Amino acid sequence: MAKAKTASVPYLCGECGWETAKWVGRCGECQAWGTVVERSAPKSRVQAGPVTLPALPIGEIPVEDSQARSSGVPELDRVLGGGLVPGAAILLAGEPGVGKSTLLLEVAAQTARYGHRTLYLTGEESAAQVRLRADRTGGIQDELYLAAETDLGAVLGHVEEVKPTLLVIDSIQTISAADLDGVPGGVTQVKEVAAALIRMAKLRNITLVLVGHVTKDGSIAGPRVLEHLVDVVLHFEGERSSRLRMVRAMKNRFGPIDEVGCFDLSSEGIVAITDPTGLFLDVRHGNVPGTCVAVAMEGRRPLLSEVQALVTHSASERPRRTTSGVDSSRVAMILAILQQHAGIRLHSFDVFVSSVGGARLNEPSNDLAIALAIASAFHGRPLGRQVVAVGELGLSGELRRVRDLDIRLSEAGRMGFRSAAVPAEAPEHIGRSRVMDGMRVVDIDNIRRALDILGMSADEAAAQG
Where in the sequence of the chain do the CATH 3.30.230.10 domains occur? Predict the structure, then answer.
């Protein structure tokens, strides 16, 4: 007898969860062959049964056992909103080789160092390989237990035996259940394995940390429901050419989602960076043209980053526009604004714009710094080592206000900068110069006025062009 069609969309892909009304040989979403299968018939309706714990008035629910404790890594505590919460499920995702395993091994070692029993289960490496990394990074602790497992039943058995307060699974895509269909890492396996681990962690008040893979476009691999099941979703990112790594909170039930943690990854392990501003500033003697310092906000933390620009005559009919660390489409818009509203003709010049130290400057508040760096390179005049610029450029050349301006200026003053160009807060403040945090702050309304104040007027730019 044929299976009953139990859903309006009876077929789905076993790899990515894509649904279709009829069977096809190739998934229309992930383009995998032979992964589209028919949904199974639904089980019988669940009847009411005994409850695990009785319902209580919300004011009588004890919270002492759910207080966050430090992970031993201050930057991670900053992102998590205080530390590791017992019973919480945390998903850490990132590209291969970015340092996820190194970071979590450091967290496990620090947790064990404070006397909390920790279990680290690896499905991608052997136990000996993880031990070698722990020897290199100083992660050998008596309360840190290590095992290599890929079966869900064996994982639960290790938890019964060790009784940890912190459980690290590296990674969720390598764990499978023998009684479930599908390959390890598939939609069915990931969803059910994650649900079983999270249920166990909450019943035993264990902090669970899952390592997740990402796809080529940077999203977390597997079903989207995985991100809904966990309490915290963290993204670990960084350029391969740089030692700087950043942890961003994409979802956090216990704290803010706009915090960023900074780390330095080296052969000796991973170290938290509590003051990363200096990493994005070029150290040199003297002033050179084509540079300007921006103040970007990474979460709630202001970071000073240097922007460098190079403008040269083009030998081709189509000048080059090359960027690194900044948004290429935003740079193209800034070039159009400079040409239209500041008189800087760049149609016959190659323009190269880059950030220093591997910083990613995608925030609109960096527009003014990029524009001033390009204008400085075009004129061959340095802006000075003690100048910062903050502001978003509009298409009509006006300078728009940005958030957290006081925090940005305070950080610039702490780093020793003496002048700042910022958007005017009101029309009567245009051209006003005031002192704030030891800096001379100039209120500017448009890009043309900014160039005039810095001695790069539109008339000079037109004469040179």
Answer: 279-464
For 94, residues 6+ apart whose C-beta sits below 8 A from its C-beta are 100, 214, 235, 236, 237
Binding-site residue numbers are: 94-101
For the structural domain made of 279-464, what CATH number should be given? 3.30.230.10
Q: Is this structure's pTM higher than 0.70?
A: yes
Q: Residue 311: in which H helix or E strand, if any?
A: strand 301-313
Closest CA to 385 of 451, 464, 288: 288
Q: Which two tokens stand for residue 415?
A: 């780093």
Domain 69-274 coded CATH 3.40.50.300: yes
- Please enumerate, by residue number, every residue annotated as part of a binding site for ATP: 94-101
CA 53/CA 31 separation, integer angstroms = 45
Predicted confidence (pLDDT) per residue in 419-432, tens digit: 999 998 877 777 78
Spatial contact of 131 and 180, defined as CB atoms under 8 Å apart: no
Percent of the chain with pLDDT over 90: 45
Spell out the residues 6+ positions from residue 217 whose beta carbon is closer than 8 angstroms to its own.
none
Q: Report d(CA 12, CA 191) in Å as an integer.
A: 15
Q: Which residue has the tokens 């930057």?
A: 75
Average pLDDT, the chain: 86
Q: For residue 387, what are the β-bridge partners?
A: 419
Lowest-confidence pick of 63-72, 82-91, 372-381: 63-72
Element (H, E) at 226: helix 225-229
| Element housing 250 (H / E) | strand 244-252
Lowest mean pLDDT among 17-31, 334-348, 439-453: 17-31
